[in-house]
Design brief:
By secondary structure, this protein is an alpha+beta fold. It has a single domain, classed as 2,3-Dihydroxybiphenyl 1,2-Dioxygenase, domain 1 (Roll), CATH 3.10.180.10. It is built from three helices and eight strands; from the N terminus they run E-H-E-E-E-E-H-E-E-E-H. The longest helix is centred in the N-terminal third of the chain and has 12 residues.
Amino acid sequence: MEHFHYGLVVDDIERAMAEYAAALGLTWADVATRAVRVAGADGGEPVDAVLLATYSRQGPPYVELIQDVRGGVWSGASRLDHIGYWVPDLAEGLAGLEASGFTASVQAVDGDGRPTRFGYRRPPSGTGPWIELVDLAVRPQLLAWIEGGGYDVR
């Protein structure tokens, strides 16, 4: 695994961008809003979630800001939400975390319900930030966006 980013859930993404820019000198990719199909650990049907996010242009590790979407996957108090890592095989990486005692929390899924793009796992203690594994296959798309290009989900 290769460390990629720290993910922060924030109440107001524009305000957080300004605060971290002033304090740390960070500059930001354009804020992207996109729908993501996710499945939770409860085994229920996948749902479409809205993700409003940006990444710092400085990194790695990058800083990801995610707007709190009330009632959604990324909701609750502002916090360090997750630590993200690139993995060459997402399903294998998620299974490896689970074998180490991490528990499923949420993951993006394809039309057949298989994990795609990213997945989060909770630490065995149930406390602290989640671990997010990000499929290495999406690295070119994400880095192009971070570097100033559009966000092109394929």
